[in-house]
## 1
Amino acid sequence: MDKKMHDKGLEVRKAVLGEAYVNNTLKNVDDFNRPFQEMLNEYCWGTVWGREELPRKTRSMLNIAMIAILNRQHEFRAHLKGALTNGVSRDEIREILMQVAIYGGMPAAVDSFRIAREVFAEIDEKA
């Protein structure tokens, strides 16, 4: 494992998804899933998210679309919050999900719109 890239990835992951979310995930690390979490931090968050060629906002927009199409609701919820942190507006999220509906299918869009509304309501409630 490249410790420097792992640490960079962990920093990016916390900045995007929130320190509380990441710390909660990491407290559940055990001998079985530790190698996976290390790989996730190093490669996903360090090697790819840590690149400068695309801004985090753009990466978040791409992730929202791809994760919605894959219908991974738990990850979609986390990355939706991350996208808002990275400056993606609610209007932009709506437009991304409209694109998902056409290219990824209506069922994926229906679930994604529902989750987005739930996330927005949670955020508004806390505000």
## 2
Amino acid sequence: MKPSERRKARRLAVQAIYSWQLSGNNIADVEHEFLTEQSLDGVDVAYFRELFSGVATKKTQLDDLIIPHLERPIDEVSPVEKAIVRLATYELTFRKDVPYKVAINEAIELAKSFGADESHKFVNGLLDKLVARK
């Protein structure tokens, strides 16, 4: 498996998490929609599935790890930033094979791609605090 396949899986997972957060649709329906309507060329589909379902099923546990490091209520965090931070927190917590620097760097790149101008700084600062606490 190439690192670029995981990078593409993360990008797709963030989009699916974002969609799920906003729509409130069933996890399986959102996953099916993404797997049938998106280009999967060069995507590690198994990793996408793990990330998406892992974040969706462990949302409360992930938020419990994130909330102590926020300076505002989690409901005030933009949906894009929330999706990225939840995904990175999942990797940092449940994927011990992913070096923490890789998880943080990937999250920063996702924030640069999908977030507002300063999102990457927010994501970086939050994840740095989360890693320091572990």
## 3
Amino acid sequence: MKFTRKANANWKGTGMEGKGTISTQSTTLDKAQLSFKTRFAEGVGTNPEELIAAAHSGCFTMQLSFLLSEAGFTPEDLNTEAKVTFEDGTITLIQLELTGKVPGISKDQFNETAQKAKEICPISKLLNTVITLSVTLMS
């Protein structure tokens, strides 16, 4: 399977005082606000690090669902929070925190499958940073 997705960013002005927008092909983001404040302080809008966190948590969770299904398990609930750490101009760490409810799976099987999902998720493979994973299996 091969496909291409696209997004567009527009910026006007300087880095500190300017502002911009980000839009996605699906229009889920349609001229979402982007500015210095939305990236480095608290402002209304989004930022690249937040978008990476969203992409990584979504990709990892979907990959895990595929792997669990291949192993004969049907997840009732998978929830992943991705925390992207930006430090001195570099993304230095992404922490994935997974909580899942998967009937019939052992804690070891769940951990092993989650680790595999982290390794083969396309977004994990794309990112050149430390990626950690903590796993909680709920009964």
## 4
Amino acid sequence: MTKKEIGTDQLITQILKGIEEVKGNDINILDLREIENTVCSYFVICNGTSNTQVNAIVNSIQKTVSKELKDKPWHVEGSENAEWVLIDYVNVVVHVFQKHIREFYDIEGLWGDAKTTVIETNY
């Protein structure tokens, strides 16, 4: 149990590093562990300003996690349109949006019971 938690913390750290490397905006972590019947433990949500930046964020996350943890996602979906890309690392699911798509779907609102951590960035 403890090893799994350390692994999840390391994974989230590397995901955040990947997002910040290409200046992803409005980064939030939703802790879903206290909510019944969830598909994973955490959502990491961020957005980019264009489909080019969304793809850059996705590629940066995958490259960073692969390099540092030798792990790759179980599933990636949405790369073709790059409006909402989902990267599934089983315990952690990353959502990379374009800003207007994020506002439309309002995942933070849908998962309002989750404990939310806002990540401050310096850019």
